[in-house]
Design brief:
- The chain is of the alpha/beta class and 615 residues long.
- Among the domains are: 126 residues, Alpha-Beta Horseshoe (Leucine-rich repeat, LRR (right-handed beta-alpha superhelix)); 190 residues, no CATH class; 90 residues, Nucleotide cyclase, GGDEF domain (Alpha-Beta Plaits, 2-Layer Sandwich), CATH 3.30.70.1230.
- The strands form 9 sheets. It has a 14-stranded mixed sheet, with no helix packed on it. Strands 25-24-26-28 form a 4-stranded antiparallel sheet, with no helix packed on it. The protein has a 3-stranded parallel sheet with strand order 11-13-15, with no helix packed on it.
- Helix 7 runs antiparallel to helix 8 and helix 8 runs antiparallel to helix 9.
- It is elongated and about 150 Å long.
């Protein structure tokens, strides 16, 4: 990677889309004098190569003349961060985001005593092999209050991380790495505003000191292995508005002071099966937008106060112990009054059905292809109210706002009263026995509860069984099947015969369309009446009738066998056929027709036999 002469492209007050902005002096390379450059902006310039020594020498020279900020983000810089980075003594901000850097962060980074912001997200940086020192230990070694932003998201870091000595740190982001051990902060981080450490391997408990950090506003620690009990001081941080602790191993109840924070925007405790108890009063969480309690052991019912929260966007209480009623009998009684009686007054079931696996209490959209389900359950949506109702309640809520709310409430909440079987299935009556409502997905024994688990009827479907027939009905069905088989055989035979006849008709019609054969191969047939002249002299009337009969037989046979009359003279016919088969068939039909006429009328006609015919 190389750095061009900055003054050739950019002057003070008119920065090119190129390299340098924020000049202090209006002179540069054109005056053969070093420019007082404060900020080097090379973001998204498709820079490639590595941070070689010539590049670092140029940056060092610029640093000695006022450069204190370098932005090389969104490029294709490779290699490692060089140890010569420590020569940039006056550097305040370094941004290496979205590059291809590898290797460890050099220890010389600690020599940048004025460094305030360090960004190196979305690279492939790693922890030195065999290193036992916490990663962030090389920051803040000479100044505990300078460093404000440390952003190391999406790298290959392992081991532990500790920034407790960085007293001025405000933003810490180590998401999407493989850090483990304890959380990296302590009571000394009084200025910490945001801690993001999602998708790591932290496996300790949340220290009590974390809840005593007065400036903390965002805490994101989802997808780790955190353990321990939810602290009673969890809601004492007034500025804390985003809490993401999902998919850990936390236990205990939700402290009541968490839901008294009117500035809370997001509370996610999903996938912590050991969190139990009931949901505290949420009426004061007027700013809440997302409440995700999926896959916890919370019990009780959905509080009516949730319907008064004006900015609520998403609620998920699937795979919990929350129920509309205390037992199955109450659920049956409420369902008899109307299915929507099982929900809070501000919710109702809609007509959008979704596949659901009642054995795991999961919607079909979250199931794999190898987990078929045959149960359809209704979805839940917010009930719309006349605008006057919202005005009376003095809430900044409109029907357009509540239409966008997403409510995920599993069918177990309503004791499966909103479920039905898919076609070709029927509800399995064998499941109408009381069973532990949570044993179906294995949470009952893991949740610390008083007394036995609640019981309910588990809903399941089984394929519809064919009706059982009596002996007489079976005999009748057998006879009907046999009759239908015979009928089908006769119909098939008839269709085949007709198909053959239709084929012959088609072939003959096609042959007739060819007209009289004039060239090529053909078959000729010559026929006349034997002794026609002598008979005509002795008995002209008889011979005249015989001639009429003879001509009729000839023409009928000629048409039937696709022949053509080439010549006719008295009793003699010369006929042409396209195939020898049709010619022979014609002769046979004429002999048969003549014999039949003789039998019917008694006139003797001496027609030459096919052997005498000329073909």
């Amino acid at each position: 990677m190389c750095l061009p002469c900055m003054s050739n492209n950019t002057k003070s007050g008119s920065p090119d889309s190129g390299s340098i902005v924020e000049y202090q002096d209006p002179f540069g390379c054109w005056d053969d004098m070093p420019a007082a450059v404060h900020h080097l902006a090379m973001r998204g310039r498709n820079l490639a190569g590595s941070l070689s020594e010539p590049v670092m020498d140029s940056l060092t020279l610029l640093s000695e003349h006022g450069l204190h900020s370098i932005d090389l983000s969104s490029n294709a810089i490779t290699g490692s961060i060089p140890r010569s980075i420590g020569r940039l003594k006056h550097m305040r901000s370094l941004n290496f985001n979205l590059n291809r850097l590898t290797g460890p962060i050099p220890e010389e980074i600690s020599e940048l005593v004025d460094l305030e912001h360090f960004y190196a997200s979305f690279n492939s940086l790693s922890t030195p092999v065999g290193s036992t020192q916490p990663l962030a230990g090389r920051f803040c070694m000479h100044s505990a209050t300078r460093l404000y932003s440390l952003i190391l998201r999406a790298n290959d870091f392992t081991g532990t991380v500790n920034v407790s000595h960085c007293e001025g740190l405000g933003l810490l982001d180590v998401q999407d790495n493989r850090f483990h051990g304890a959380l990296p902060i302590a009571i000394t981080n009084q200025n910490l505003i945001s801690l993001r450490a999602t998708n790591n391997l932290f496996n300790a408990s949340i220290p009590e000191d974390l809840w005593r950090l007065p400036q903390l506003a965002t805490l994101e620690m989802a997808n780790n292995a955190l353990s321990g009990t939810l602290s009673q001081y969890m809601g004492t941080v007034n500025n804390l508005v985003n809490i993401r602790l999902g998919n850990n191993s936390l236990r205990g109840t939700i402290p009541g002071n968490v839901t008294t924070n009117s500035q809370m925007l997001l509370l996610e405790l999903h996938d912590n099966p050991l969190i139990h108890g009931t949901l505290p009063d949420v009426s004061k969480m007027v700013g809440i937008r997302t409440l995700d309690l999926h896959n916890t052991s919370l019990s009780g019912s959905v509080p009516e106060a949730l319907g008064t929260l004006p900015y609520l966007e998403r609620v998920d209480i699937t795979l919990t112990h929350m129920l509309c009623c205390e037992n199955q009998a109450q659920a049956d009684a409420l369902a008899a009054q109307g299915i929507n009686k099982l929900l809070p007054s501000f919710l109702l079931f809609n007509n959008r059905m979704q596949l659901f696996d009642t054995t795991s209490n999961m919607p079909g959209t979250e199931l794999g292809r190898d987990q078929p389900t045959d149960v359809l359950c209704g979805s839940v949506e917010r009930r719309l109210q006349p605008e006057a109702v919202w005005n009376v309640m003095q809430l900044p809520v409109t029907n357009n706002a509540v239409k966008s709310q997403r409510w995920n409430i599993g069918p177990l909440y309503s004791f499966y009263k909103n479920c039905t079987c898919t076609p070709a299935y029927v509800q399995d009556s064998s499941t109408r026995v009381p069973v532990n409502i949570t044993s179906a997905w294995g949470l009952c024994s893991s949740a610390p509860q008083e007394g036995p688990c609640l019981k309910a009827y588990i809903f399941s479907c089984s394929p519809r069984q064919p009706p059982q027939l009596s002996l007489m009905q079976q005999v009748a069905v057998g006879m009907a099947v046999a009759f239908c088989s015979v009928l089908l055989a006769v119909m098939a035979n008839t269709c085949m015969a007709h198909a053959s006849k239709v084929r012959r008709y088609y072939i003959r019609a096609k042959t007739r369309l060819k007209g009289t054969p004039k060239h090529g191969r053909m078959s000729l047939v010559v026929t006349d009446i034997e002794g026609y002249s002598e008979i005509f002299k002795r008995a002209p009337e008889v011979m005249f009738r015989a001639l009429v009969m003879h001509n009729s037989v000839i023409r009928t046979a000629k048409y039937a066998n696709c022949g053509c009359v080439l010549e006719q003279e008295g009793d003699s016919f010369t006929l042409g056929f396209y195939s020898a088969f049709d010619a022979v068939a014609f002769c046979l039909q004429v002999q048969e027709g003549s014999s039949q006429e003789e039998a019917d009328h008694g006139d003797t006609l001496g027609l030459r036999s096919p052997q005498k015919a000329k073909a």
